[in-house]
Design goal:
Elements (H helix, E strand, L loop, with lengths): L1 H5 L5 E4 L4 E4 L7 H4 L5 E7 L3 E3 L4 E5 L6 E5 L5 E5 L12 E3 L6 E2 L4 E5 L1 H7 L5 E5 L7 E3 L4 E2 L5 E5 L1
Length: 159
Amino acid sequence: MLKKLFKKSNGVEIHAPLNGKVVNLKDVPDPVFSQKMMGEGIAIVPSEGKVFSPVNGEIVTIPESKHAIGMRTKDGTEVLIHIGLETVSLNGKGFTTLVSVGDQVKVGEQLLDVDLEYIKENAADIITPVIITNSNDKQVTVAEETEARAGETVLLTVK
């Protein structure tokens, strides 16, 4: 019991929200992400359109365009999943949300259904950045994974 109380936390693990190929954030073809203007993170080129929660936490934002979803963990880590590039202009078409702001979610719980074919045809790219938006206040370790399995592969650790 005491060991559990005094055990040092290894931080919050951010799991893959999608299946696909893992890409370094600097390789995302959008300076807002590649230059880490929104925060530290990683990206995935999705192989399918099911988006799952990468953390246990609360849904804090879903824009009307449904192209992104923001979450906050119990320790205050803020995670943004931004599906594709230039997808805000799709006005929600191709996206089906399965959760609402205020919902508590667990790692691996499905958040969105995305029509990847529609996104490929109508947006700049399907690459999906996963960003720690408050990474300036945190220590973020990026895993060296090349393939992501949704809900299983740990992509980032935040302390």
